[in-house]
C-alpha cells in the first residue's frame, strides 16, 4: 500500500473536451476490504486525506469510502471495532471511465452531490480520483 496525498485541482472550462484521465488526481491511499474501520480512519488521518480507495484481495476497485461515511458507521449503535470495510462497502458505487468527459463527470457530481468520483479502467483498477476543488 502506498500512501499518497491526493491534491484536488479545479476543473477547467475546457471540460467538454478533456477526459477523466486528463483531469484526475492520483488515486491516493488504496486499502484492502478486510481492514477495520478504525484502522482505515487511522490511515486517512496519517495520509491527511478524506477518502480511501477500497480494493479486493486481487487489487480490484470496490468502493471509495470517505471519512464522513466511516465516522457515521462508527457512530451507529451496533458498531464494534471488528467491523471491516467489506461490511460497509458496495461494489456498485459510482465511478467513471478514463474516457468519460470532464463535463459528464462534473454533471454527475453536481446531480448526485458527490465530492469525488473514482476513475476506474476496464479491468477494475483504480487509476485516479476526480474531485471538486474546495
Automatic annotation (TrEMBL):
Protein name: CBS domain-containing protein
Source organism (scientific name): Streptomyces thinghirensis
SUPFAM superfamilies in the record: CBS-domain pair
Pfam families according to UniProt: CBS
Keywords, ordered alphabetically: CBS domain
Domain CBS: 24-82, 88-134
Domain of life: Bacteria
Alphabetical list of CDD domains matching this protein: CBS_pair_SF
Transport is among the record's keywords: no
Amino acid at each position: 500500500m502506498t500512501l499518497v496525498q491526493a491534491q484536488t485541482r479545479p476543473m477547467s472550462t475546457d471540460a467538454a473536451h478533456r477526459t477523466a484521465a486528463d483531469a484526475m488526481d492520483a488515486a491516493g491511499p488504496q486499502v484492502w476490504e478486510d481492514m477495520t474501520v478504525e484502522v482505515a480512519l487511522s490511515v486517512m488521518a496519517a495520509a491527511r486525506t478524506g477518502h480511501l480507495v477500497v480494493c479486493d484481495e486481487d487489487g480490484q476497485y470496490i468502493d471509495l469510502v470517505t471519512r464522513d461515511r466511516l465516522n457515521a458507521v462508527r457512530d451507529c449503535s451496533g458498531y464494534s471495532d471488528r467491523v471491516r470495510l467489506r461490511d460497509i462497502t458496495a461494489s456498485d458505487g459510482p465511478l467513471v471511465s478514463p474516457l468519460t468527459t470532464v463535463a459528464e463527470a462534473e454533471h454527475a457530481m453536481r446531480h448526485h452531490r458527490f465530492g469525488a468520483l473514482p476513475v476506474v479502467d476496464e479491468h477494475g483498477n483504480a487509476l485516479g480520483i476526480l474531485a471538486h476543488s474546495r
